[in-house]
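Handout, page 2. Input:
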Amino acid sequence: MDRLVPVVYEELKRIASAQLRREWSDPTLGTTGLVHEAYVRLANIDRVDWQDRAHFFAVATRQMRRILVDHARARRRAKRGGGAIHVTLSEVNGATLVEPEEVLMLDDALTRLEKVNERQCRVVEYRCMAGMSVEETAQVLGTSTRTVKRDWAFARAWLNRELTGESSAPATEPRNA
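Output:
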């Protein structure tokens, strides 16, 4: 692990930066902090048979997701400025920020998806959070690109329904792998 991280540090920072841009509005957790927290968690994993580079990034992405969820939970519990409005530079520049509640809602939806179809959950994580291509995702999961494309389309639709609460669609669950 100690030899691997310096080699992949920049890629971890890219993944962390992408996740923070998409999912995080708390300025107290930056890219470097997220990478370092992920490193600590990765270093404490005892039984992982690292298969290849893509597998490492997949596991690192999952750890980063867990860190963001943990921080969102902590932030939701904390009292903030007595109702004062906080404006960040990102808001001033027009970036759309995601509140902790939205991070937690997405995590809850991904957890439900994982219970029904773990592979579809992984496809979402690897494509959205790690920024992996369809081909890279297929390699990590040991499946075909066609399967990844199908899983990706179905999981996006399922998550959209879960997150928007639309019940007009048929009440189907993701297909089991």
